[in-house]
Design a protein that fits this description.
Strand 18 (200-205) and strand 19 form a beta hairpin. 38% of the residues are buried. This protein has 12 helices and 30 strands. It has 479 residues and is of the alpha+beta class.
Length: 479
């Protein structure tokens, strides 16, 4: 008879998304069991992390462990893109990191263990089954078969696992061909990004003294090729790179590999007993170098949502709505950012590789906002636009998704709760009647300070949430 394992939450997958979700839930007092099929450190394509990763690492309490790991501190990046050469620096206090993902992931999973997460590794999870009392997950470990029972399931098993996903492409397809090389002399701790004819390059030094040299291509370029032919394609393209061709003069450390680098979004709505995180939920274009950071940020939200579902079932709908909206927001935002970067090079290279990626897919394209560009006069009298609405929505707190009034308007990509550290609803509610700019600033300054008051007012004017009061009166009086 299979052994029984009891937990409130089962997390399947021990990568950054799964480890962080489990860690935060344990820190919130939940009983969590995490299942990871691979032994760590597992091989994984190298990663360049932006300096903005540090607030997340500090919040999780793993920043010192990351510093002690000996990862390379990135001094910035070198770009050959859009017909120009550019160097970008990183902050001195919080530089970016060039990490060994095997070691990085192991640090996060160990931190989850130390937080109280029960980690079964290596452990193969078979298809979970919903029962009247929650989830039942068959598990196979070196000790034999067991059955895990949990109230809530978190799918963090990556983009290629099953578990009933329905993915939709969020970009034109993309494939990475990559290999590791001994570092050329003077390579430096800078990520290198370069546009080619119908592909682009990314390369970065690794903590072990090697260089990961990647070439991103359309998968159709590899259709029907044997491993030897893919290797030759990779080497021929690498020889045409200005920034990475020096690798060919060094020893190649292992074979030429490939991996799917396409952006996609999982369409199944979250449920009160099932959440998806990381690449089980969405993936973004590698151009952003933010895939890991986004997965970790989403994982912290998932933990708060899960804690809300288990503790405050009356807030289930608002918590799930919050989670869905944040996922859609991430996918849309990064589709636009990637498209803008591709469009920059498309201006000097008109091939189909660039044109297909120079704008978001139709289903992710936001309608252009009707923004106000004119300067705000101190003599202006303003009123709230009738299109600006205050509705009940979900806002992330430390432990729960909480109900709060949030602002919506056609010019906003999503509902907004606060700006410049100030809640918007009380400020907007104060503008039922027309008020002059000095009057608004005086009233708001007593609440949020003059700097924040001025910043909020300019933003509300720019987005046409506040409009000239005379304009509204003229519209009301028109036939």
């Amino acid at each position: 008879m299979a052994a029984e394992i009891e937990a409130e939450i089962c997390v399947i997958g021990g990568g950054p998304a799964g480890a962080v979700t489990a860690m935060r839930l344990a820190q919130l007092g939940r009983r969590v069991c995490l299942l990871e099929r691979a032994i760590f450190p597992r091989p994984h394509i190298g990663e360049s992390l932006p300096s903005s990763i540090w607030p997340i690492l500090r919040f999780l309490g793993v920043d010192e462990a990351m510093k002690a790991a000996g990862f390379l501190q990135s001094s910035g990046s070198v770009l050959m893109w859009g017909g120009t050469f550019e160097r970008r620096g990183e902050p001195v206090d919080d530089p970016g990191l060039l990490v060994d993902r095997g070691q990085f992931d192991a640090i996060l999973l160990d931190a989850a263990r130390q937080s109280g997460v029960r980690v079964l590794q290596p452990a193969r999870a078979y298809r979970p089954r919903r029962t009247g009392a929650g989830w039942e997950v068959p598990v196979l470990t070196a000790q034999g078969k067991s059955r895990l029972r949990a109230d809530l399931l978190v799918d963090a098993a990556g983009k290629h696992a099953g578990l009933g996903r329905r993915f939709r492409p969020a970009s034109a397809p993309l494939m990475a061909l990559y290999a590791y090389w001994q570092a050329p002399p003077g390579f430096g701790a800078q990520a290198r990004v370069e546009a080619g004819d119908a592909h682009w390059y990314w390369g970065a030094a690794q903590p072990d003294g090697t260089v990961n040299a990647c070439i991103f291509i359309d998968p159709s370029d590899c259709t029907g090729l044997s491993p030897a032919a893919r290797r030759d394609l990779y080497l021929n393209l690498l020889a045409r790179s200005t920034l990475l061709a020096g690798c060919l003069e060094q020893a190649r450390m292992g074979p030429v590999r490939r991996c799917d680098a396409s952006s996609q979004c999982e369409l199944t709505p979250p449920a009160d007993d099932l959440l998806r995180v990381g690449e089980a939920s969405f993936s973004v274009d590698a151009l952003s170098s933010q895939g890991v950071q986004l997965a970790m940020a989403q994982a912290m939200q998932a933990a708060v949502v899960a804690n809300t579902l288990l503790t405050r079932p009356s807030d289930t709908n608002i918590a799930l709505g919050f989670y869905s909206e944040r996922q859609r927001e991430r996918v849309e935002t990064h589709a636009e950012l990637a498209a803008a970067f591709y469009a920059r090079h498309h201006e000097v290279s008109s091939g189909p590789f660039w044109s297909q990626r120079a704008r978001p897919l139709d289903w992710l394209r936001r309608p252009p906002a009707d923004l106000q560009n004119a300067e705000l006069s101190k003599g202006e009298v303003l009123r709230r636009s009738p299109e600006a609405k205050l509705i009940q929505g979900g806002v992330q707190g430390d432990a729960y998704v909480v109900r709060s009034e949030i602002l919506t308007h056609p010019n906003l990509p999503r509902a907004v709760h606060s700006l410049a550290g100030a809640e918007l609803a009380p400020l907007i509610s104060d503008l039922r009647d027309p008020r002059s700019v000095p009057d608004i600033l005086q009233r708001w300054s007593s609440r949020i300070g003059p700097t924040s008051a001025a910043q909020v007012l300019r933003w509300l004017w720019h987005t046409k949430i506040l409009v000239p009061a005379g304009e509204l009166w003229r519209n009301r009086g028109s036939p």
